[in-house]
Automatic annotation (TrEMBL), chain A:
Residues 94-290, 372-558 form the ABC transmembrane type-1 domain. It comes from the Bacteria. It is a multi-pass membrane protein. Belongs to the binding-protein-dependent transport system permease family. The lineage of its organism: Bacteria, Bacillati, Actinomycetota, Actinomycetes, Kitasatosporales. It is found in: Cell membrane. This is ABC transporter permease subunit. The keyword DNA repair does not apply. Keywords: Cell membrane, Membrane, Transmembrane, Transmembrane helix, Transport.
TrEMBL record, chain B:
Keywords: ATP-binding, Nucleotide-binding, Transport. Pfam families: ABC_tran (PF00005). The keyword Nucleotide-binding applies. This is ATP-binding cassette domain-containing protein. The lineage of its organism: Bacteria, Bacillati, Actinomycetota, Actinomycetes, Kitasatosporales. The keyword Chloroplast does not apply. Gene3D superfamilies: P-loop containing nucleotide triphosphate hydrolases (3.40.50.300). Residues 6-226 form the ABC transporter domain. InterPro entries: AAA+_ATPase, ABC_transp_ATP-bind, ABC_transporter-like_ATP-bd, ABC_transporter-like_CS, P-loop_NTPase. Signal peptide: none annotated. SMART domains: AAA. GO terms for molecular function: ATP binding. Belongs to the ABC transporter superfamily.
Automatic annotation (TrEMBL), chain C:
It comes from Streptomyces atroolivaceus. PANTHER family: DIPEPTIDE TRANSPORT ATP-BINDING PROTEIN DPPD (PTHR43297:SF2), OLIGOPEPTIDE TRANSPORT ATP-BINDING PROTEIN APPD (PTHR43297). It is found in: Cell membrane. Keywords: ATP-binding, Cell membrane, Membrane, Nucleotide-binding, Transport. This is ABC transporter ATP-binding protein. It is a peripheral membrane protein. One of its GO terms (molecular function) is ATP binding. Residues 7-245 form the ABC transporter domain. InterPro entries: AAA+_ATPase, ABC_Ni/Peptide_Import, ABC_transporter-like_ATP-bd, ABC_transporter-like_CS, Oligopep_ABC_C, P-loop_NTPase. SUPFAM superfamilies: P-loop containing nucleoside triphosphate hydrolases (SSF52540). SMART domains: AAA (SM00382). CDD domains: ABC_NikE_OppD_transporters.
Length: 581, 226, 318
């Protein structure tokens, strides 16, 4: 097989990710010697000799290349090094974490598949329609939010299930639900959205017309839908690795995700390297498995049939729904912006909602509404900047389709949380690091979209007509290609804004983004967890705001797609109308 | 004139291992219609693209108004391109969905610096009128028009370049019978009036026999005796 | 020719909300005949074909009746006694199922047969349409078939249960002449082999002339003219049929083709009068006020107030 541009990009991106992991100690640029010294022996004085002994010990003085070499050779021998903090071998702790996480993910996958089946069945039975708002919402709610709400409702208020630890099957229920429901929503949505278009294909008409029963047609449609979607199922499974970090943290599950996060926070870089490597490997193996399943599903005869699905026709949303979500959010934010988010009032700690504090106060007596309003400025503002950056990069790279496709593959295999952990480990946690992490993975889908549009425009007859009238390439590029590509990609970028904000919030929640006392939404939710039994409103306010944001993302996307659908419908029905004058 | 408007010798077009056009020769005079007829996949459309130099032929000569085109660079071709214009099969696809009809027709004038704000709009209206389109159509976009109207707009855009040769690639295949007749009449009138040469590509034998002066039957990239 | 109707359609109406796309069609299809439904896009012919099979779109309201001889429940007979050859036969097979399995699924949905027996019937049907080495080919996928073979397989699927009526919706659209003739030939052979009638939906008058026994010319959801092909196309009595015929390119020296001016009306913008009146050179005041009923003229049914005055299109049309 000849290497394709996408394949090369894929290999390069993978190598870069591996190198970034290997070079973490050097990339971080901060002197870990003191951390290590403190961790190893509290009594020892931080003298220059002791510190440089540790540096030598860690191999930090030899420079990046030898560091990378040492790490790589150790890796080949199955040696992941020793922890800077505990001084123990890393392999056993990674292995035990991985074991726990795999169990959790398997349970989550079961939840996801059950939910997906429940979502797809009505579409198959009715033959039309889509899984609707519930699936979209389930897919959009981030795991950390769902986990917190599940913890609050089932664990704390109702007391049904244990919320912390990993001692038996009952400990698995809530984490598996929190991890599995968004994945199931996404799975179900992928299938349910693709089904109506497949049921409109010609062969369904032929089968119906030849008398084939509805049940048979329904199963055949499922058989038709699944193989092209398998790579996306793989992505959903990869997404579980990212979600696991948040869910394990919330429920104190000793899995690989929590290990990675803990290592990043305590600057235990070798442990972090091992944990991230395990997560990456998990993602890659899932991707490979997905490819294998796809080949099995297709069988040798179909492998070269170039199967693709007809474009899904999304259900149109009423504009009032996103407008209502947006208005509600804006009202709360606007009100909150008028108040002081930093004013500490120790006499009014954890006060319930009142006229003075409409959403109550937090553990330091700060007004929750004020912090919510100001948090929006930082969360959504940062998200907007990330969005704009992604758009510019996507438009520039959209003209090099190979690169865009390869990079999109890698970015899809990397959950934002893991990139966030890496960036935070290298650059220290902070808003800028979180923004960088999210930006790194948010441009590729846009670039892939841009590349597809560029290809479509370049292949169109009207562009050929442009060349035929003798228009120079620059004219064609600036007057036809760019305008055709920029507007839809910009719309796409705008649609991703709430999603990007949620990704930023999830990094904030994990302590990888904005730092206290900044009023970032994810951070607000995280801080409120400590006193959630006594002051649930402090948790509910940011949770509700994040849920509204997710709702806005879903309904806004549905509305915009519905509109886009209507606009292009003039072209899709041209076969029927072309013959009428 | 000593030489034909278009003279094609031993044209070869390959797509990888597949030879789409295999040593095809023909010529088209001004005011004349030469039809290429044959089943789908016989190389008709590849010939059209190769004549227009929109896909460079792999071998052979394409002489237009006595000038050999195959050796010219893209930049050298550009000033010659307006003199040979295509009309495509898909009436909607050949116009930009984002452009109003008026702007699409004006574009050839603008590309070649012949646009004059004073009389340009009048020229566009004249062209629309020439192809039988109401001036109000000019302010619409392709999806707001019928297939026949779009095809007329495509012809108006081709005329804006003042061409000598039109390469008509299945121009009426996507149109209903009653609409088809109108477009064929329009093409006949334009030819009589402007003395245009037509390379007319069509798979419908009845249309070809009605419309063309001469016909080349094609099979697998080669002419076959009729 | 037996005159007893095999399929009777009475006052068929299909509407989407307020808009009526098919506005009262009445016709019979007789055993073993080729019945053509002809019209331009938007005339409602494909919708009508779907309604014959009980396959109208979900959002459509269907009125009137469609009956098979000695049977009322049409939906139960779909696939058994009436089947469909859909448009665009090149993409009409499922890409992920072996061709033989698709035919067998049709067999097993209609008859209680074992998997093996159904497969044998599928192979026999493929063999009948001229697929070489049918037993082996039945296990192949559509993308392993050539274009012509795919078209044959689609026809085989529509005839595998030996129906009484085959409805073919634009089976030749977008095909070049050779393919077109090939498809029509296979359709004719299969029709004879299983003894079915064929309802041929098309916009191509040449196809009607060469392959159909009777024709229904549709305009704006109604019948303009209905009768034997020889009468209707030989000497049309509806101005619309005459105009369509006249606009066909003819052999011989190039001349201006007579063109039907104007455009077909949108179904939601119909006046009280004849739908064709705005484009009709013969239209008078009554035409704009009152929709003409079908009347017997010259061996066929015509809906026109001026049926007697329609000139012969093959000589000169206005």
């Amino acid at each position: 097989m000849r290497p394709t541009a996408a394949g090369v990009t894929r290999a390069v991106a993978l190598a870069a990710a591996l190198a970034a992991v290997g070079l973490l100690p050097w990339l971080s640029g901060r002197d870990p010697a003191l951390t290590v010294l403190r961790a190893r022996s509290v009594e020892q004085e931080p003298t220059e000799e002791a510190l440089s002994a540790i540096r030598r010990d860690l191999g930090l003085e030899a420079g990046p290349l030898s560091l990378l070499g040492d790490w790589a050779t150790g890796l080949l021998r199955g040696d992941l090094g020793t922890s800077w903090v505990s001084g123990t071998d890393i392999l056993p702790s990674v292995a035990s974490g991985l074991q726990v996480s795999l169990g959790l993910m398997a349970a989550a996958l079961l939840v996801a598949v059950l939910l997906a089946v429940a979502l797809v069945t009505p579409v198959l039975v009715r033959g039309k329609g889509s899984a609707g708002a519930f699936a979209a919402m389930a897919a959009a709610v981030p795991e950390f939010l769902l986990a917190t709400v599940a913890l609050l409702v089932c664990g704390v208020w109702l007391g049904w299930l244990p919320t912390s630890g990993w001692q038996g099957p009952e400990y698995m229920v809530l984490p598996a639900l929190a991890l599995g429901v968004p994945a199931g929503g996404l799975l179900g949505r992928l299938v349910a959205d693709a089904l109506p278009a497949v049921l409109d294909e010609r062969w369904v008409e032929l089968w119906h017309g030849a008398g084939v029963s509805r049940t048979r047609v329904a199963f055949a449609a499922l058989r038709r839908v699944l193989p092209p979607l398998v790579p996306q199922f793989g992505m959903v499974a990869v997404g579980l690795t990212g979600g696991a970090v948040a869910v394990e943290t919330v429920f104190a599950v000793p899995g690989i995700g929590r290990t990675a996060l803990g290592a990043a926070k305590s600057q235990d870089l070798p442990l972090l390297q091992g944990a991230v490597l395990a997560l990456l490997a998990l993602g890659l193996i899932t991707g490979a498995l997905a490819a294998l399943v796809r080949r099995r599903l297709l069988g040798p005869a179909l492998r070269d049939a170039g199967l693709s699905l007809p474009p899904a026709r999304p259900a149109r949303a009423h504009p009032a729904i996103p407008a209502a979500f947006g208005a509600l959010l804006l009202a709360a934010i606007g009100w909150g912006l008028l108040r002081d988010p930093y004013a500490v009032d120790t006499t009014a700690r954890l006060a319930p909602p009142s006229w003075a504090n409409p959403m109550g106060t937090d553990g330091l007596g700060r007004d929750v509404l004020a912090r919510l309003g100001h948090g929006a400025a930082s969360t959504v503002g940062t998200a907007a900047a990330v969005c704009l950056l992604s758009l510019v990069v996507a438009l520039a790279l959209g003209f090099v389709p190979g690169i865009a496709a390869g990079a999109a593959d890698i970015a899809n295999a990397l959950p934002p949380v893991i990139v966030g952990i890496l960036v935070a480990a290298a650059a220290g946690p902070g808003t800028r690091g979180a923004a960088l992490a999210v930006a790194l993975i948010s441009w590729p889908p846009l670039a892939a979209h841009a590349a597809a549009l560029v290809q479509e425009v370049r292949a169109s007859a009207f562009l050929t007509a442009q060349r035929a009238i003798g228009a120079p390439p620059l004219w064609i590029l600036t007057r036809h290609v760019l305008p055709s590509v920029a507007a839809p990609v910009a719309r796409h970028a705008l649609l991703r804004l709430p999603g990007i904000a949620l990704a930023l919030a999830s990094l904030g929640f994990l302590g990888l983004g904005a730092q206290p006392p900044a009023p970032e939404w994810g951070l607000l939710l995280d801080e409120s967890r400590a006193y959630v039994e006594r002051a649930p409103w402090a948790a509910l306010a940011p949770a509700a705001a994040l849920a509204l944001l997710a709702g806005l993302a879903v309904s806004g996307a549905a509305y915009a797609q519905g509109r886009g659908d209507r606009r292009t419908s003039g072209r899709t029905v041209r076969k029927e109308t072309a013959r009428a004058v | 004139m000593s030489h034909p408007l278009l003279d094609v010798r031993d044209l070869v077009v390959r797509y990888g291992p597949v030879t789409a056009v295999d040593h095809l020769s023909f010529s088209v005079d001004a005011g004349e219609t030469l039809a290429l007829n044959g089943p789908s996949g016989c190389g008709k459309s590849s010939t059209a693209l190769a004549v227009l130099q929109l896909r460079r032929p792999d071998a052979g000569e394409v002489r237009f108004e006595g000038r050999e085109l195959t050796y010219l660079t893209e930049r050298e071709l550009r000033p010659l391109r307006p003199r040979m214009q295509p009309v495509f099969q898909d009436p909607y696809g050949s116009l930009s969905p984002r452009q109003r009809i008026r702007d699409a027709v004006a574009e050839p004038l603008k590309v070649h610096g012949r646009w004059n704000p004073a009389n340009g709009p009048a020229r566009v209206t004249e062209l629309l009128d020439r192809v039988g389109l109401d001036p109000s159509c000019g302010d619409r976009r392709p999806h707001e028009l019928s297939g026949g109207q779009c095809q007329r707009a495509g012809i108006a855009r081709a005329l804006a370049s003042d061409p000598r040769l039109l390469v008509l690639d299945e121009p009426v295949s996507a149109l209903d019978a009653s609409v088809r007749a109108g477009v064929l009449n329009l093409l006949a009138d334009l030819q009589d009036e402007l003395g245009l040469g037509y390379l007319f590509i069509c798979h419908d034998r009845a249309v070809v026999r009605h419309f063309a002066d001469r016909v080349i039957e094609m099979r697998e990239g080669r002419p076959v005796p009729t | 020719m037996p005159s007893e109707a095999l399929l009777s359609v009475r006052d068929l109406r299909i509407s989407f909300g307020e808009v009526e796309a098919v506005r009262g069609l009445t016709f019979d299809v007789r055993p073993h005949e080729v019945f053509a439904l002809v019209g331009e896009s938007g005339a409602g012919k494909s919708l009508t074909a779907r309604a014959l099979l009980g396959m109208a779109p979900r959002d459509a309201t269907v009125g009137g009746s469609v009956r098979l001889r000695d049977n009322v429940d049409l939906a139960a007979e779909r696939g058994r006694r009436i089947t469909l050859v859909p448009q665009d036969a090149l993409s009409a097979l499922s890409p992920v199922h072996p061709v033989g399995d698709q035919l067998a699924a049709a067999v097993r949905s209609v008859r209680r047969l074992s998997r093996r027996e159904a497969q044998a019937r599928a192979v026999a049907a493929l063999d009948r349409v001229g697929i070489p080495d049918a037993a082996r080919r039945a296990r192949a996928y559509p993308h392993e078939y050539s274009g012509g073979m795919r078209q044959r397989a689609v026809i085989a699927m529509a005839t595998v249960n030996e129906p009484d009526v085959v409805v073919a919706d634009e089976p030749t659209t977008a095909l070049d002449e050779e393919r077109r003739e090939q498809v029509l030939r296979v359709l004719a052979e299969q029709r004879e082999a299983v003894g079915a009638a064929l309802v041929l939906v098309t916009h191509d008058l040449d196809v009607v002339r060469d392959h159909a026994d009777r024709v229904l010319v549709m305009y704006a959801g109604r019948a303009a003219e209905l009768g034997p092909v020889r009468q209707v196309l030989g000497r049309p009595r509806a101005p619309y049929t005459a105009g369509l015929l006249a606009s066909l390119p003819q052999d011989g020296p190039r001349r201006r083709l007579p063109v039907l001016g104007g455009t077909p009306p949108a179904p939601d913008a119909l006046g009280p009068g004849c739908a064709f009146a705005p484009r009709c050179p013969l239209a008078t005041d009554p035409c704009h006020d009152r929709e003409p009923a079908l009347q017997a003229v010259d061996g066929r049914l015509v809906a026109c107030h001026h049926a007697a005055d329609v000139p012969d299109p093959l000589r000169k049309f206005v």
